[in-house]
């Protein structure tokens, strides 16, 4: 087992110690630019990467399907999934997938509007 020497008092400590057992000096290091990532001197494993919420990809696929084939049926589902993805992303800053969720919202809204205008056009043509 290795030991860590305290930079303040020079006392030996175990390599898993979070601080000096003699003087109480902290061994925790916070990396600049990422205050959420602080590790003990003994272990320097980076944090796991943030995962993109599945809702973002599902919303994007559903919005594309809604736009090209079954608009008024699939568009609300795509909007709900995109909003769920945006809530997950807002709760966990730095999570990838925000662009997909925004694109899905835009395509879904465009799909709904185009189907509404198409329906109005068809109704006015019959009158």
TrEMBL record:
Annotated TM spans: 59-80, 101-120
Keywords assigned by UniProt, alphabetized: Membrane, Transmembrane, Transmembrane helix
Lineage: superkingdom: Bacteria
Protein name: Zinc ribbon domain-containing protein
Lineage: Bacteria, Pseudomonadati, Myxococcota, Myxococcia, Myxococcales
């Amino acid at each position: 087992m290795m030991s860590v020497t305290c930079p303040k008092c020079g006392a030996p400590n175990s390599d898993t110690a979070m601080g000096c057992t003699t003087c109480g000096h902290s061994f925790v290091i916070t990396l600049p630019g990422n205050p959420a990532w602080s590790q003990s001197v003994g272990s320097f494993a980076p944090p796991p990467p943030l995962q993109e919420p599945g809702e973002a990809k599902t919303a994007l696929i559903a919005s594309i399907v809604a736009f090209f084939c079954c608009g008024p049926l699939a568009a609300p589902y795509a909007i709900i999934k995109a909003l769920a993805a945006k809530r997950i992303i807002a709760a966990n800053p730095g999570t990838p997938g925000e662009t997909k969720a925004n694109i899905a919202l835009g395509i879904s809204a465009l799909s709904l509007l185009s189907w509404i205008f198409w329906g109005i056009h068809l109704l006015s043509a019959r009158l």
